Amino acid sequence: MKKLLTKPIYQRQPFESVVAWAAFEMYRNIPIDKKRTYTFVADKLQKSLTLIRRWAKDNHWQERSMTFDNYLDNERILGMRRRLIEMDERQAKIGVAMQIKASVRLNSLKAEELTPRDTASFIAEGVKIERLARGRETENYGYVESNQADNKLREAKAFYEEMTLESPDMSESEKESILSEVFDIDSTEFQKILSGDSLTKQESLITDDDESIDESIEDDDGFEPTI
Fold it and tell me: What is the band of 103 on the pLDDT scale with cuts at 50, 70, 90?
């Protein structure tokens, strides 16, 4: 068995003839969803199966093919991470643009134009935004921590969907292992991703708060906002 010299080892080695290299390259490049066989290479190149097996043994086909598979897998994961970062940047730009437009509209509003419901909503959202900007919890419900957990699950779910689309044959355990490494999620969080259940206690509380605000406003038709 010959010693591998060139790195990465899935590239052509100095001791490989043109034909021997072509045989390994054909074997290496068989799609991952199909089984690699020496018979396939022998038939394609019209070489004896004995010769192909000897080349495979002497030239480390199994080790080199596994290294090549690992390389492709790493490249796929890096590509997913890169697209996830691009998605974050794109959504951040959209978010900034929306904030600018909302700020322009907000600054153009006059106090007397606000309804009681608008006033209550502005106060509630303004408090949340200020406390978030200062790194504080909102309404003592752990809003910051909850938002961070939601964001992590949303990003992990997007990553999971990309893996499913690009690698349909990847097992759920492999996906869970990758998500655990990239996003530091546990088995419970992975099950949430599978079930689509990413609703946190905070989101539920916000909905309840909105309903309670609406009810209190509807019960008090004579409410006069103080600006």
Answer: confident
